Backbone:
């Protein structure tokens, strides 16, 4: 039976401790023999937090060698294929880009509960009732389902509680291939920084690209309990078109308005009127979906021993994503 990437790397069977990144030696040593829901949640927390804010500490420990992988972080200015990328205005309320059930986007400050500081302490936020808490925990849960965490849904790691259509979540962002590519790249670099095998990082990157980076892609199942839904995040005219395009299922792309010119930093449509308010009481405006999270999604090449032709064994929710 194939082993999912989540289960494989939570057990620590993939490598000896000296190759682990120094700042998490103690944490990962505690996970090596126990593939529990709480440990899977910890692994996803480390990978997601690093992808979001970049490498956040790197102490020197004698006789410890770790992967020297620089992670810039999704919230930091970067470049992708030579093009400058700035995703921060989508997170800090600079742009009216969040879908809260209306006909246009609203500005939401997703960094309202400590910003990077709690992430540097391996937490989602300072409290548990903020927009930041909701965003980060949903990211942990989403990637847990995507990577086939078999213990998700058990005490210690909740099933996905967010909106199951990533298109609907991102429909007012008008993201282009450089922005989506940069996001995916940072996720891959974060995984690499923890010693995840190159083949497995490539597999995850391919899956995310096929799932999110093709305009007009047909409905695909990501959260099993929700069934097939639209998942394209890259919806700008410059995004590559899906070979099985269903553009009639998507609304016309809408560039987000500027809610705060200082925070927007030149991004967005400054001529449009932006709505710049949002409260947690309206957080469920677009509905929610849950899933058990059981069953492997992407099977690791190293665990399954299936590297023929560089193709991973794929089961469950990402099979269609690889075949787009």
Residues:
């Amino acid at each position: 039976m194939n082993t999912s990437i989540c289960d494989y790397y939570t057990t620590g069977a993939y490598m000896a401790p000296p190759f682990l990144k120094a700042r998490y030696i103690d944490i990962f040593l505690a996970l090596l023999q126990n593939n529990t829901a709480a440990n899977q949640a910890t692994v996803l927390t480390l990978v997601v937090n690093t992808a979001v804010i970049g490498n956040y500490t790197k102490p020197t420990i004698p006789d410890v060698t770790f992967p020297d992988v620089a992670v810039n972080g999704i919230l930091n200015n970067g470049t992708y294929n030579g093009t400058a990328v700035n995703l921060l205005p989508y997170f800090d309320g600079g742009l009216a880009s969040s879908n809260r059930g209306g006909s246009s986007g609203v500005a939401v400050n997703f960094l309202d509960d400590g910003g990077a500081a709690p992430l540097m302490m391996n937490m989602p936020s300072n409290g548990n009732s903020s927009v930041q808490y909701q965003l980060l925990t949903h990211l942990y849960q989403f990637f847990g389902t995507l990577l086939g965490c078999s213990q998700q849904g058990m005490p210690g790691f909740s099933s996905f509680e967010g909106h199951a259509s990533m298109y609907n979540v991102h429909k007012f962002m008008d993201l282009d291939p450089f922005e989506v590519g940069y996001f995916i790249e940072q996720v891959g670099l974060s995984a690499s920084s923890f010693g995840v095998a190159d083949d497995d990082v490539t597999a995850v990157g391919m899956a995310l690209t096929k799932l999110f980076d093709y305009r007009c892609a047909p409905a695909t199942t990501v959260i099993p309990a929700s069934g097939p839904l639209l998942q394209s995040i890259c919806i700008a005219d410059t995004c590559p078109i899906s070979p099985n395009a269903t553009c009639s299922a998507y609304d016309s792309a809408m560039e987000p308005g500027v809610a705060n010119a200082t925070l927007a930093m030149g991004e967005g449509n400054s001529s449009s009127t932006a709505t710049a308010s949002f409260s947690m009481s309206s957080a469920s405006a677009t509905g929610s979906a849950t899933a058990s999270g059981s069953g492997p999604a992407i099977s690791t090449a190293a665990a399954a021993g299936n590297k023929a032709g560089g193709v991973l064994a794929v089961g469950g929710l990402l099979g269609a994503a690889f075949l787009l």
Summary: The mean pLDDT is 78. The CA atoms of residues 92 and 109 lie 4 Å apart. DSSP finds twelve helices and seven strands in the chain.
